[in-house]
Amino acid sequence: xxKVLFALTLLIAAFAVPASAQxxxxxxxxxxxxxxxxxxxxxxxxxxYPLQTSPGIETIETNTDQIEVVRYVLAQINxxxxxxxxxxxxxxxxxxxxxxxxxxxxxRKQIGEVLSGYTVTSRLHEKLIxxxxxxxxxxxxxxxxxxxxxxxxxVFIRLNCKYWPNDAEKRMRAQMPTTK
Length: 180
Description:
This protein is an alpha/beta fold. It has one domain (about 25-175): RbsD-like domain (RbsD-like fold, 3-Layer(aba) Sandwich), CATH 3.40.1650. The chain has helices at about 1-30, 65-80, 105-115, 125-135, 165-175; strands at about 40-45, 55-60, 85-90, 120-125, 140-145, 155-160. The chain has a six-stranded mixed sheet with strand order 2-5-1-6-3-4.
């Protein structure tokens, strides 16, 4: 009887974890985003993204569909007063064949729709991972792992200042005297 109760308890706990994990990652995004600024990153990763050991990288398992996480994170960033997204994706993604990665075609279509209206920069996956490692030495990076099982589908979002555009920075720098 004890074994049956123990097994039943484990089964109930297993079904309870996804709901709490889903609310936890949203709470984490809500808590961290006001503290983040330009040079911080939020990465929405597929399920095989590695657990990096750099000091500034925080990894959260969402146990959620990646498209849902991307939509949520972008909505939170867009609603903020202080940051805007700069989006990077793996340069390998357009070359992942459907026959080797079922769901790749559907994913490319879905993520294209979600990211329409945004400028998306493609870089090699290894370069993006290396950039995460380097940036994490000084800046916080939030990695949200999803349940997506298609390779090269991570969405890397570098935060930039919403109220200070890149062209304003360039104009200001052009006016400053050159210092050594």
